[in-house]
From TrEMBL:
GO CC, any one term: plasma membrane
GO molecular function: kinase activity
Name assigned to this protein: Histidine kinase
Domain called FIST C-domain: residue spans: 223-363
Keywords, ordered alphabetically: Cell membrane, Kinase, Membrane, Transferase, Transmembrane, Transmembrane helix
Source domain of life: Bacteria
Residues annotated as transmembrane: none
Residue ranges of every copy of the FIST domain listed in the record: 38-222
Membrane topology, as annotated: Multi-pass membrane protein
Length: 376
């Protein structure tokens, strides 16, 4: 399990030509043992969804790939490029012990379905890793992740597909709903970290009164006046601008690093003076407000990379990087800037990934984060 992975990116929209380019870039494949399987981690820009089956067929034949996992996205990440607004594909292949991997190829929509898919491979109380891809229409995703965290010894990373309606996932074949991915036994060495893209404003605040996803009263005051007091006079004069980069953070209980999940403020009712949030709310719980911040995102990403490198003293075989659609060129200034930081921190390793509608780390669904999973 020390053979390095190999990765490549190819722009274009013709499946045969894309496969030819990827096969040429990846080069001659090493001989693998009888007990090994070859897995391809593949991400395609959403215009290629109609060609996915044809592309998989070409790659399976040309590279001897046993299993595929991945999906579609509005923008994809390769070892050297971030591809926006153009068709393309990025692929990383690596070898694993056949007994240590199982593809979750039947899309699951309930925790019980996931347990059934892994029956005979991973018992819920047996440590294991899950690399998940989720359809953005899967409303049960957060509930499933919560149950994974509460009822199993598994650790999930991954992301939610992005792009035009109808984007598909890849799990050996092609599917279009639910959650798919790859399950790994704990003899596959992995390190994982995540990086936030925001700076918390001072203090935490109590949700005094809520209704579904509406903040009615905050810290005992009507929500909107309380919010204006927190963000200050300048931002309060232009709420539309403020909502562009002031977000709500939900602190992670028990975190010793001040970790939090971010959700958007999706609306303001000026007459009722309430705020609508992109998550169901519980009265009495604590929130904080955070500011999208390009420099803070860069600094935190560099810190995360230093930490995760320390978890891989014997080297990195390959990497998966899932970043929020609100990061990338929107937060780091230009295309490729975020990837350049990652590759500088890791040392130019085989890497693929995509820009997601939500990022999965440690059995939780995040926003505005970058999630890095290393095969060490």
């Amino acid at each position: 399990m020390t053979t390095p992975f190999r990765s490549a990116t190819a722009p274009g929209d013709e499946p045969g030509a894309l496969a030819t380019t990827l096969i040429a870039e990846l080069g001659e494949q090493p001989v693998r043992g009888d007990d090994q399987v070859r897995v391809g981690f593949i991400y395609l820009s959403d215009p290629l969804s109609r060609h996915a089956r044809s592309l998989l067929k070409h790659l399976r034949e040309g590279l001897g790939i046993d299993h595929f996992v991945g999906g579609m996205a509005m923008a994809i990440i390769g070892p050297r490029d971030e591809l926006y607004e153009q068709p393309g594909v990025t692929l990383m292949i690596g070898e694993f012990p056949a007994s240590s991997v199982r593809v979750i190829y039947h899309p699951v929509r309930r925790f019980e379905d996931l347990v059934q898919e892994l029956d005979g491979f991973l018992d819920p109380q047996t440590p294991g890793r899950l690399i998940l891809n989720a359809d953005p229409q899967t409303e049960s995703l957060e509930d499933i992740l919560t149950e994974i965290g509460e009822q199993t010894a598994w650790f999930a990373t991954g992301g939610v597909n992005s792009g035009e309606p109808g984007v598909v996932q890849i799990a050996d074949g092609v599917s279009a709903s639910g959650i798919t991915g790859l399950a790994l036994r704990d003899d596959v060495a992995i390190a994982a970290r995540h990086s936030q893209g925001c700076t918390p404003l001072p203090g935490q605040h109590e949700l005094t009164e809520t209704w579904r996803n509406i903040i009615v009263r905050l810290d005992g005051q009507q929500a909107l006046p309380a919010f204006k007091g927190i963000i200050g006079d300048v931002l309060s004069r232009d709420l539309e601008r403020a909502l562009g980069y002031i977000l709500v953070g939900f602190p992670i209980a028990g975190s010793d690093t001040g970790d939090y999940r971010v959700r958007n403020i999706i609306g303001v009712d000026l007459d009722q003076e309430v705020l609508a949030i992109g998550e169901m709310l519980e009265p009495g719980s604590q929130i904080l407000f955070v500011r999208r911040d390009g420099q803070a995102a860069r600094d935190d990403l560099e810190r995360m990379l230093e930490q995760v490198r320390a978890q891989a003293p014997n080297g990195i075989r390959g990497a998966l990087y899932v970043s929020c659609v609100g990061r990338g060129r929107h937060q780091f200034g230009q295309e490729g800037a975020e990837l350049a930081i990652v590759q500088k921190g890791l040392g130019d390793v085989p890497l693929v990934g995509f820009f997601a509608n939500g990022e999965i780390f440690a059995n939780r669904l995040y926003g505005y984060t970058g999630v890095l999973t290393l095969f060490t």
